[in-house]
Amino acid sequence: MKLLAIDAVTEACSVALYHDGALLSRERLVQQQHTEFLLPLVAELLSEGGMAVNQLDAIVFDRGPGSFTGLRVCSGVAQGLALGADLPVIPVSSLATLAQGAYRLDQAEYVLACIDARQHEVYWAAYALSEGLMTPIIGEAVSLPQAVRLDAAHPWRGVGSGIQRYAAELAGAAAVSFATSAEVRFPMAQDMLPFAIRAWTDNTCLDASRALPVYLRDNVATPPGK
């Protein structure tokens, strides 16, 4: 199984290459320069792995939620690579990716994944570990931080840019205490791979034409004059 994963929907840009159990990855914090860095990172990683795009089995991409520009870049690059090499795509949630990273780094089993959505809102979802994969127990939503609700019976770990920015509002609204990492966490391509491996095994890959972003918020652009 040979998979290339790409992520560019937040301030971080990352790629990962999986080849029959071996993993290579690259990450950079690039702010608004995703178009400048993503394809060079892909080329660098494929070169290191001694592989061409047409030797892959599928392209894995972060389908969001996240920034409007980042989502378009990530899905566009995934679709272009997949169409050019006649490969299927595997979309993975940015929030699930964040949660899987908390399991990899912290061994967390209950995770509140939360990304700053601007406009004093957050993209968020809650996950519990099941057979090595983070499984949603509260589905993806965009809301005010004060609207987040969690089950106080679980030991939660909070990850993502929304946690650091709205820590007080989230802790008060959710009515639970949750541990957080000292640094801001972003979705990383390597944490998409466990979901992608499951999708490949279950034969749930998609045609490249369906490499579409998920915005959650309807008003993804600001009308002129506002």
Describe this structure in words.
The chain is α/β, with parallel strands linked by helices. It has 2 domains: 2-93 and 187-210, 2-Layer Sandwich (Nucleotidyltransferase, domain 5), CATH 3.30.420.40; 94-180, Nucleotidyltransferase, domain 5, CATH 3.30.420.40. Helices cover 31% and strands 30% of the residues. It has 6 helices and 10 strands, in the order βββαβαβαββββααβα. It has helices spanning 34-49, 68-85, 94-106, 161-165, 167-174, 193-201, and strands spanning 2-7, 12-19, 22-29, 58-64, 89-93, 110-116, 122-130, 133-143, 156-159, 178-180. The protein has a 5-stranded mixed beta sheet, sandwiched between helices. A 5-stranded mixed beta sheet has the order 8-7-6-9-10. The chain is globular.
Shape designation: globular
Roughly how much helix do the residues carry, as a percent range?
25-40%
Can you identify the CATH class of the largest domain?
Alpha Beta
| Portion in strands | 25-35%
Spatial order of the strands forming the largest sheet: 3-2-1-4-5
Annotation field: number of helices: 6
- The secondary-structure element order is EEEHEHEHEEEEHHEH
Relevant CATH superfamily of the largest domain: ATPase, nucleotide binding domain
By CATH, the architecture of the largest domain is named 2-Layer Sandwich
The total tally of domains equals: 2
Q: Alpha-carbon distance between the termini?
A: 49 Å
